[in-house]
């Protein structure tokens, strides 16, 4: 009987002081419709990969490269290779569906609900203010969600040496003669002969053998000869074409991923960057969290789900070193503050003006 009286007295005093009650949204009474919901933010990472695509094209006379030029470092097959050149890590904030709360007025209270300011997604920005002071306003981090951006395809072609079809010509007596059709090796020999001629011309141009004053034009002539020589050499050595494109992957860190490596993508030799379910070498993200909350006791699950009088939940975010790796190679590394890695706490709002950081959910100002 005494216990029952104490509980009754406690509830009575609880109601007299109560202006409103904050409850985890899932535990809010369905019949209550005079209150409001608010979110704490969570963070999303935007990983923008710059991919280098290298295409290797075998030269039409590759089989004669060693015989005619004495080289062995030529392209021996058509293939494509992919490499991650760079990764840009960006962060934004969005409403956390696991951190949404319901604030309901106490029916017996004569005091009005405090003013509350939200952003356009329902993340709480301020309580007790008519408007947020300009000097204390913090812009919420956002980014544009976009799809894969590819580069334009580039055509790769080889210089023409001579047509393999039969050519007809008139001799001195006007009779038709048909030229001998060249074999592939004959064409390779013609290409090699042109390389020798171009190298000779290049030497004579630079050495002054021709005794002609070309003036400033000699540089352009030399570059033109070298370019043409390289075109003929590519008939044996092959050609390499590089292209670049960007691919974006979005990652939402979860608390069970703290201090562990998580697969976010795969790099395939044949298909480039794929999602984590593809085949290839694994791209991992690792969240190395500082133990900034080691001296703070975490709230129990019961406290988090119970109703709290004249108090609201806020967050204590965690400073995190975010690292992206491909095997032993570090692709990118950045220090960020990730809100969902932290714990939630309660702050008394009775007669207080409170400002929140919309990117982390932490309290940044309390004014009586």
Please explain how this structure is put together.
The chain is an alpha+beta fold and 368 residues long. It has a domain at 19-52 and 83-151 and 243-367. It contains 5 helices and 16 strands. Strands 8-2-3-1-12 form a 5-stranded antiparallel beta sheet. The chain is elongated, with a radius of gyration of 36 Å. Mean pLDDT is 84; it is low at 1-16.
Short description:
This protein is of the alpha+beta class and 368 residues long. Helices cover 19% and strands 40% of the residues. The protein has a domain at 19-52 and 83-151 and 243-367.
Task: Outline the secondary-structure elements.
Layout: H1 2-17, E1 20-24, E2 36-57, H2 65-69, E3 79-105, E4 116-118, E5 124-127, E6 168-170, E7 176-178, H3 184-207, H4 217-237, E8 239-251, E9 261-268, E10 272-275, E11 281-289, H5 301-305, E12 308-309, E13 311-326, E14 329-348, E15 353-356, E16 363-367
Antiparallel strand pairs: 1-3, 1-12, 2-3, 2-8, 4-5, 5-15, 6-7, 9-10, 9-11, 11-13, 13-14, 15-16
Helix pairs in contact: 3-4
Strand order of the largest sheet: 8-2-3-1-12
Main β-sheet description? 5 strands, antiparallel
Give the N-terminus to C-terminus distance in angstroms.
41 Å
Residues in helices, as a percent range = 10-25%
What order do the SSEs take from the amino end to the carboxyl end, as H and E?
HEEHEEEEEHHEEEEHEEEEE
Strand content: 35-45%
Unreliable runs? 1-16
What is the alpha-carbon Rg in Å?
36 Å
Q: Mean pLDDT, as a whole number?
A: 84
Secondary-structure content class: alpha+beta
What global shape is seen? Answer: elongated
The total of helices stands at 5
Beta strand count: 16
């Amino acid at each position: 009987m005494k216990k029952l009286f104490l509980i009754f007295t406690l509830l009575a005093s609880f109601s007299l002081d109560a202006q409103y009650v904050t409850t985890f949204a899932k535990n809010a009474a369905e019949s209550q419709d005079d209150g409001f919901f608010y979110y704490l933010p969570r963070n999303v990472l935007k990983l923008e990969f710059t991919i280098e695509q290298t295409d290797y094209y075998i030269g039409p006379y590759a089989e004669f490269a060693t015989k005619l030029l004495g080289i062995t470092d030529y392209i021996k097959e058509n293939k494509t290779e992919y490499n991650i050149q760079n990764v840009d890590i960006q962060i934004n904030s969005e409403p956390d569906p696991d951190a949404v709360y319901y604030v309901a007025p106490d029916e017996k209270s004569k005091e009005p609900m405090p003013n509350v300011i939200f952003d356009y997604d329902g993340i709480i920005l301020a309580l007790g203010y008519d408007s947020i002071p300009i000097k204390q306003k913090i812009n919420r981090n956002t980014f544009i969600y976009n799809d894969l951006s590819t580069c334009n395809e580039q055509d790769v072609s080889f210089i023409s040496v001579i047509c393999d079809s039969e050519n007809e010509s008139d001799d001195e007596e006007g009779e038709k003669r048909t030229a001998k059709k060249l074999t592939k090796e004959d064409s390779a020999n013609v290409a090699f002969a042109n390389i020798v001629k171009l190298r000779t011309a290049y030497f004579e141009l630079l050495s002054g053998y021709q005794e002609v004053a070309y003036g400033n034009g000699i540089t352009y002539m030399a570059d033109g000869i070298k370019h043409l020589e390289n075109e003929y050499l590519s008939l044996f050595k092959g050609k390499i074409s590089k292209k670049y494109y960007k691919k974006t992957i979005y990652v939402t860190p979860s608390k069970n991923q703290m201090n562990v490596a998580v697969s976010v993508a795969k790099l395939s030799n044949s298909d480039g960057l794929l999602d984590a379910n593809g085949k290839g070498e694994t791209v991992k993200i690792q969240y190395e969290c500082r133990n900034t909350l080691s001296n703070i006791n975490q709230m129990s699950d019961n406290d988090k789900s119970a109703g709290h009088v004249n108090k609201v939940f806020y967050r204590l975010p965690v400073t995190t070193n975010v690292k992206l790796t491909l095997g032993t190679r570090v692709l990118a590394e950045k220090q960020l503050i990730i809100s969902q890695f932290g714990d939630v706490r309660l702050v008394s709002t009775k007669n207080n003006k409170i400002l929140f950081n919309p990117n982390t959910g932490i309290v940044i100002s309390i004014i009586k």
